[in-house]
Design goal:
By secondary structure, the protein is of the alpha/beta class. Helix content is 47%, strand content 20%. The chain has a domain at 3-109 and 281-295: ATPase, nucleotide binding domain (Nucleotidyltransferase, domain 5, 2-Layer Sandwich), CATH 3.30.420. Residues 5-264 form the ATPase BadF/BadG/BcrA/BcrD type domain.
């Protein structure tokens, strides 16, 4: 019996699925997040740790492994190749990988037609026109990941601190302040500085959960951030329509589940478009890709 491993590597979590020769699911699991941006020791350690956790949870022998990796870009990278070979003890030709967004697109549109916007730790839009890949957004936390978890968390902090600068206290945004400061472990600047400048993008993205909790409790700034996130994600979808023509617009990712105002913000900005909010299983799709690749 041979096994085929599919892995969806995200900033806040890594999910994997193993299927057998017949395509039946054998096992699945989840471990810590990681990224393909393994340019520093901490990011490399996170990637290696996640891959080792997946290997230990997977049965053997693995005939083929396919990964969708956030931050991996759309080209092969020698360092990623090496780390994957080492982690799963595979030879060249027994694994493949893509950007996690490309994996999500195949999971969302198995018939091959549609524009997809994904919002998790980061945000990005992807489609294909005449075989050409078109990607919009996804330029990372330092440039623009509009509507993403990191964008929501950091923009909410910006608005909160501007309010504190002007009023001397988070006047009118007490709920948001309580949630964000609680998530960062303290209400003083040192706690914020240590969290924002000392944590990785995946951990910063978790601040969006605190903002969403404040929105659910009626905080006006938090609610506004949810709506603005929806508008930002709609902007990516419109860019895809402008460049590739009309097609169903799909929205996926953990951000879409944070608060109903996000989906409402998308719908308000895209009235008249064919909108879809599919629940995709990217790790299982990766396992199917691995099985197909092994039988070519």
């Amino acid at each position: 019996m041979s096994y085929y491993l599919g892995i969806d590597v995200g900033g806040t979590g890594t999910r994997w699925v193993v299927i057998d020769d017949a395509g039946h699911e054998v096992t699945r699991g989840r471990t810590d997040g990681a990224t393909g941006l393994i340019y520093d020791a901490a990011s490399l350690a996170a990637f290696v740790g996640a891959m080792e956790a997946v290997r230990e949870g997977s049965p053997g022998p693995l005939a083929f492994v396919h990964l969708g990796i956030t931050g991996a870009g759309f080209n092969r990278h020698a360092n990623l190749d090496e780390q994957i070979k080492l982690a799963f003890r595979l030879p060249d030709g027994a694994f493949s990988y893509s950007n996690d967004m490309e994996l999500a697109w195949h999971a969302a549109f198995p018939d091959g037609r549609g524009h997809l916007v994904s919002a998790g730790t980061g945000s990005i839009g992807l489609t294909f026109k005449d075989g050409e890949r078109i990607a919009v957004g996804g330029r990372g936390i330092l440039i623009d990941d509009g509507g993403s978890g990191t964008w929501i968390g950091l923009r909410a902090l910006d608005r909160l601190y501007r309010l504190i600068d002007e009023k001397g206290a988070p006047e009118g945004a007490e709920i948001l302040a309580e949630k964000l400061f609680g998530a960062m472990g303290g209400a003083d600047w040192d706690a914020t500085r240590a969290f924002v400048y000392g944590k990785d993008r995946g951990q910063i993205g978790t601040l969006a959960v605190a903002v969403a909790e404040a929105a659910h409790l009626g905080d006006p700034i938090a609610l506004d951030m949810m709506t603005r996130a929806g508008t930002e994600l709609a902007r990516l979808a419109l860019a895809l329509v402008d460049r590739a023509g009309p097609a169903p617009l799909g929205f996926v990712g953990g951000v879409m589940k944070l608060h109903p105002a996000i989906q409402a913000g998308v719908a308000a900005a895209l009235q008249g478009y064919d909108l879809q909010f599919p629940l995709i299983d990217a790790a299982h799709q990766a396992a199917r890709i691995a099985r197909a690749a092994a039988h070519r």
